Each structure stands twice: as structure tokens, then as C-alpha cells.
Amino acid sequence: MSEIGRLIQADGQYEFRDPSRNLIVRGGHPEWVLQAAAEVISNTAKLEAESQVEELSALLEFEAAEQIDVDSAKFALKERFELIPQCIVSLGTMDYKWAAAEGRAQKPEEFGKQPIKRVHDMSMTRSDSFLKNEPGVEMND
User: Fold this and answer.
1) What is the pLDDT of residues 43-68, one digit of tens each?
2) Residue among 43, 74, 42 nearest 60 (CA)
């Protein structure tokens, strides 16, 4: 496993550092810092991928690259940046599906107004026992 970046709290601010990109993002709240870092990393990565396609296309004209290299770079670009970002989020022992806001808007029946949806449906029981009281348990009204 290799570390890509690190979020720390220092001198009352939060700071994300990504040494591989020479990136430092500072802000007053961790979610702001992570959101800014994600946007910068995404835009930078997209520019790098587009540049690679252009470079390979130019090399193809000089017969210094193969068509398969250009096609592969185009596929990688589309595969990464056309798909709506989705992840598995673990909070404690529960796993959730997260999708970017654009994806949640496309599937409101799945996410409702929440940014995450539980992966495992805990209401699925073998004997329809979800949220049913145990025999003999009295409920006070």
C-alpha cells in the first residue's frame, strides 16, 4: 500500500498534502480541504490524460506510436472521466454506496436525499422479524 496524500490538523487549520503532485491545500474545515483537493486532483488528472491522448496522436502521425496506444489512452480517459464517481464508504461495521451528486440526481429512488445508501438491507430477515418485538416484551405508550 502506498500513501497518496495526508490530511492533518495544524495551527487551527486543516491541511491536505499530496507530495507526488506538490499539492498543499489548507482550510478551516476538513470537508472544505478534501473537496478542494479532490477538484484540483481531478482537473489535473484529466488534463494529464487529455495531454497523453494528444501526445500519442501526434506521435502516431510521425509513426512513433501505434493506433492501439492512442485507442487505449482514449479508452482510459473515457473510463475515468465519463463515469460518475462512486465509492464504497465504511462507517464502523456498515458499508454504504456513495455516488457524486450528479449520480444521486439520476437515481433519486435509490438515494433519496442522502449522499450514501446502505449496501446491506438489514430489513431482509429469514422470518420477517425486522422491527418486531420479542414475545413477552411490553411496550409502554
Assistant:
1) 999 999 999 999 999 999 999 999 99
2) 74
Cβ atoms 108, 117 nearer than 8 A: no
This prediction has a pTM of 0.78
What DSSP assignment string belongs to 3-72?
Answer: ---EEEEETTEEEEEEGGGTEEEEESSHHHHHHHHHHHHHHHHHHHHHHHHHHHHHHHHTTSS-HHHHHH
Grid coordinates of 7: 490530511
Instruction: Report how far residue 140's alpha carbon sits from residue 133's, in angstroms, rounded to the nearest whole number.
Output: 12
Phi, psi of 6 (to 5 degrees): -145, 135
- Give just the sign of the alpha carbon dihedral 115, 98, 103, 17: positive
Whether the per-residue pLDDT at 141 is higher than 70: the answer is no
Q: Is pLDDT of 5 > 90?
A: yes
Residues 56 and 64: their CA atoms lie apart, in Å, by 8
Q: Are 78 and 53 in contact (CB under 8 A)?
A: no
Provide φ and ψ at 138, rounded to 5°: -90, 135
